[in-house]
Design brief:
The termini are far apart. This protein is about 35% helix and about 15% strand. It has helices at about 5-15, 30-35, 40-45, 65-70, 90-100, 140-155; strands at about 20-25, 35-40, 50-55, 75-80, 100-105, 125-130. The strands form two sheets. A four-stranded parallel beta sheet has the order 3-4-5-6. Strands 1-2 form a two-stranded parallel ribbon.
Length: about 170
Amino acid sequence: MGYGAIGSRVARILRGFGAQVLVADPFVHAHDVSPAEVTDLADLMRRSTFVTVHARATPETEGLISRQMIDLMPAGGVLVNCARGSLVDYDAGCDALDSGKLFGAAFDVFPREPIPAGSRLLTTPNIVMTPHLAGASKQTAFNAASIVASEVAAFLAGRPLAHCANPQVLSHLH
């Protein structure tokens, strides 16, 4: 769910393992994701044993992976959230794990960070957790710094930005 820079890379890696990849992202079209298939979120959840979440946190995406969406997943599924904690209903995820509906979950982000001592996330079985650094490496930090430097140079030279989330704002700066 989500086909930006990270979601598209995850899709490419999964295809390398022979996975059929479904994409739910309102900002992409079928020609953008070929050979993956674009569908809506409910259909993706119904058809996917393994769901990875890679969307931005916005008012529209808050709680997007709700109890209703998790209930649509096939029995024995796995839910992975490396995006933002606000996107997933973690209580519903824990309930699905406790009942056996989900086989497992992997979370790199949480509704509250750090995780409170009494959180169900700490006692629910079959959850793998990392402290929001699953993709962190020296190379990642170098790449991020290089991208920022390139974008600043492009902006100062008046060239279009490759990684601007809100390009409409640029017209107000001149």
